[in-house]
Design a protein that fits this description.
alpha+beta, four-stranded antiparallel sheet, 7 helices, 40% helix, globular
């Protein structure tokens, strides 16, 4: 079993995917990891839409990552797109967020999304967080309502290359202090 720190080192943003399909069981384990994520007042303000049908995934990616969003065109090669819809937080979480000036639902979404990505890494899958996409087209292709809000898409698939790049991060002493 891989240690948590090794898993964190293994997880990176994949930008080159193989065309190998992703087993439903692996996707289910990733979704379960996301489901278990903590959230403000247990709001769980998320819904995950897994786009894995080959035809729909290609159409979706072509439209979502086209035009001014083409910097994320690499995601078109991923066999699966995971669309995270931000849902309303519970009243107490929303009220606390307004009081503090913090949108807790986005923090919660980040925690759940990263749980998903860490489980994907354990499965040998690659992921990439995508915030730059055509939200209007995304909602249209998926049949979402105009009131739905899509903040994140995660591309998912087997990496084309198996090498793990060393992460370029701040030095531990530069990013933390113990008092």
């Amino acid at each position: 079993m891989i240690s948590f720190l090794d898993l964190c080192k293994k997880r990176n943003s994949c930008r080159k995917y193989s065309d190998r399909s992703v087993p439903d069981e692996a996707i289910a384990r990733c979704l379960e990891a996301a489901r278990l994520a903590p959230s403000t007042c247990n709001s769980q303000p998320w819904r995950f839409i897994v786009v894995k049908d080959h035809k729909l995934s290609k159409e979706f990616a072509q439209k979502a990552f086209g035009g001014v969003y083409s910097m994320n065109a690499f995601a078109k090669a991923a066999p699966v797109q995971v669309v995270i819809v931000t849902e309303r937080s519970m009243y107490a979480a929303h009220l606390a967020g307004n009081f503090r000036g913090v949108q807790y639902s986005l923090i919660d979404l980040g925690i759940a999304g990263e749980h998903f990505c860490l489980q994907a890494a354990e499965e040998g899958l690659g992921t990439c967080w995508l915030g730059w996409f055509d939200q209007k087209v995304t909602k249209k292709v998926l049949g979402l309502s105009k009131n739905d809000r899509v903040d994140i898409i995660i591309s998912l698939g087997y990496p084309q290359e198996d090498n793990i790049k060393e992460k370029k991060r701040k030095n531990l002493d530069d990013m933390s202090e113990i008092r």
